Structures are given as structure tokens and as C-alpha cells.
């Protein structure tokens, strides 16, 4: 059996992760793999409820540390009930965002202590790590323009953030990629959908080749 792989997609608002995550899953299925398409925060019934809590614009301010804990609460459910069991069965998991998003948004964007994030990640993931992360990178202004065109003014808590916030998030993502270039593959996401897709398929080809060789 070819061992399953855990692939995550990351990037700022409007980078096109969801579009490319669908294409990645399609590509892998047509290559014959069993694939779970999932997302964070979310992926289980409780985690999807927590997603609504962190995205909605309520009257009470959510503290950065609270936001971090909610992300990891959702992640704990997701890892235990979906991601780990699928990987143990030798299946592939394609996940729209994972812990790099916490490092970039709560760490880089909101200033939450990196040591706290590391410690929560260790406890919640207990050894589950992405094999490959596709970081879709583009200038924050382009990403925000795409996202605003799509949402048409009904912004969630994150979409309502400033350009400076998303620039900090982008810088954090780029720092993560510099620190772990084997896992994190930087993809220029400012091009057309099909061009970005072709760039990603090169990486997927390498990953499948490596998975088959490791049988
Ligand atoms: N968050 C966090 O803070 N901490 C965490 O630990 C986690 C998450 C896990 C929800 O995530 C929020 O949670 C997120 C960070 C935070 N908020 N923000 N920002 P989400 O991933 O669901 O939210 P999102 O970033 O808004 O994702 P999205 O809706 O999937 O947007 P996207 O990744 O950019 O995907 P898209 O829908 O494919 O593309 C957006 C639009 O651009 C859409 O109209 C597309 O048709 C268009 N698009 C896509 N690709 C292209 C190209 N190549 N050219 C032109 N237009 C394009």
C-alpha cells in the first residue's frame, strides 16, 4: 500500500486556497488515491460550530489568546476524529489551512506568543504534521481585493481586518517557508487559476513519486 500523505494549503485572504484545494483533491483522486478534503477551523461537527464562533462578528471582543485556544480546540477534534484516522488507513488528507495559519494569523497578525502556539501544537497534534504545505503567496492588497469582490461587503471578523494586518500575516507565512523549505512549497498565487494549478501539480507529482518510492 502507498502510505497516505497530509497536504495543507495556506495563504492570506483571497490567495485562492479553496479553489486550489478542490483541484488538488481532484488531481489526487484521478491518480487513484482515496482523498479527504477538509478545512480549518472545521472538519468535524463540533469544529464547524467553533468555526462559526470565531468568524462571526459578535458584540463581544474575542481576545487573541481566546481566538488561539478556539483554533486549537477545533484542531484537536479534527486531528483526533478525521486527520489521524485517515492517515492511519493510508488515505490522503487535503486540508485548507492548519497550524501554520495559527502561527501566521494569531502569532504574526495578533502577536500571540510563539511559545504558547508551539506548546498547544505539540499537545493537540501529538506527532501529526503536514508532509507538504502549499503556501499560496501574493501581495496582501491583491488578495484583499479578490476577497472583497467575492464577499460583496459581508465581511467576517477576519475579512474586516486591515491591509497592515494581512501584510504581517503574509510576512509570517514567508518566514515559516524560509525556516522549513522542504515541507513548505512557495507558490506564486498572483497568476491565473490554471497557471497556479500547473505550478502545484509539479509539486504533487514529486510527492506522489516519493510516496510510491517509500512503499
Ligand atoms: N484562521 C486563523 O486565524 N487561524 C487558524 O489557525 C485558522 C484559520 C485555521 C477562515 O479561514 C479564517 O480563519 C481565515 C483565517 C482564520 N480568515 N482569513 N483571512 P478560511 O480559509 O475559510 O478563509 P479565507 O482565507 O477567507 O479562505 P477562502 O474563502 O477559502 O479564500 P481563498 O483561500 O482565497 O479561496 P478562494 O475562494 O479560492 O478565492 C477567493 C476569491 O478569489 C474567489 O472569488 C476566487 O474565484 C478568486 N480566485 C481564486 N484564485 C484566483 C486566481 N488565481 N486569480 C484570480 N482570482 C482568483
Describe the structure.
With 215 residues, the chain is an alpha/beta fold. Helix content is 57%, strand content 13%. The protein contains eight helices and five strands. A five-stranded parallel β-sheet has the order 2-3-1-4-5, sandwiched between helices. The chain is globular and about 50 Å long. The model has no long low-confidence stretch (mean pLDDT 95). The structure holds ligand Z5A.
SSE order, as H and E? Answer: EHEHHEHHEHHEH
In percent terms, what proportion of residues is strand? 5-15%
Radius of gyration: 17 Å
Number of domains: 1
How is this structure best summarized?
The chain has 215 residues and is an alpha/beta fold. It has helices spanning 17-30, 45-55, 64-88, 99-109, 114-125, 140-151, 163-179, 193-213, and strands spanning 6-11, 35-39, 92-96, 132-137, 184-188.
What are the main properties of this structure?
215 residues, alpha/beta, Rossmann fold, five-stranded parallel sheet, 8 helices, 13% strand, binds ligand Z5A
How do the strands and helices of this protein lay out in sequence?
Elements: E1 6-11, H1 17-30, E2 35-39, H2 45-55, H3 64-88, E3 92-96, H4 99-109, H5 114-125, E4 132-137, H6 140-151, H7 163-179, E5 184-188, H8 193-213
Parallel strand pairs: 1-3, 1-4, 2-3, 4-5
Helix pairs in contact: 1-8, 2-3, 3-5, 4-7
The structure holds ligand Z5A.
The site of ligand Z5A has 23 residues, from helix 1, helix 4, helix 6 and helix 8.
Amino acid at each position: 500500500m502507498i502510505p497516505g500523505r497530509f497536504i495543507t494549503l495556506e495563504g492570506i485572504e483571497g490567495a485562492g486556497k479553496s479553489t486550489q484545494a478542490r483541484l488538488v483533491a481532484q488531481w489526487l483522486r484521478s491518480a487513484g488515491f482515496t482523498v479527504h478534503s477538509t478545512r480549518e477551523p472545521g472538519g468535524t461537527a463540533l469544529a464547524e460550530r467553533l468555526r462559526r464562533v470565531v468568524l462571526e462578528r459578535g458584540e463581544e471582543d474575542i481576545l487573541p489568546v481566546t481566538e488561539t485556544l478556539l483554533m486549537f480546540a477545533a484542531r484537536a477534534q479534527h486531528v483526533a476524529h478525521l486527520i489521524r484516522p485517515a492517515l492511519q488507513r493510508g488515505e490522503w488528507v487535503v486540508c485548507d489551512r492548519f497550524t501554520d495559519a495559527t502561527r501566521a494569523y494569531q502569532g504574526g497578525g495578533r502577536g500571540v506568543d510563539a511559545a504558547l502556539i508551539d506548546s498547544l501544537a505539540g499537545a493537540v497534534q501529538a506527532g501529526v504534521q503536514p508532509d507538504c504545505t502549499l503556501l499560496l503567496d501574493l501581495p496582501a492588497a491583491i488578495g484583499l481585493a479578490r476577497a472583497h469582490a467575492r464577499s460583496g461587503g459581508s465581511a467576517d471578523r477576519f475579512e474586516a481586518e486591515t491591509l497592515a494586518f494581512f501584510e504581517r500575516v503574509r510576512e509570517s507565512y514567508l518566514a515559516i517557508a524560509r525556516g522549513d523549505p522542504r515541507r513548505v512549497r512557495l507558490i506564486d498565487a498572483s497568476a491565473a487559476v490554471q497557471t497556479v494549478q500547473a505550478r502545484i501539480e509539479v509539486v504533487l507529482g514529486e510527492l506522489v513519486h516519493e510516496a510510491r518510492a517509500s512503499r
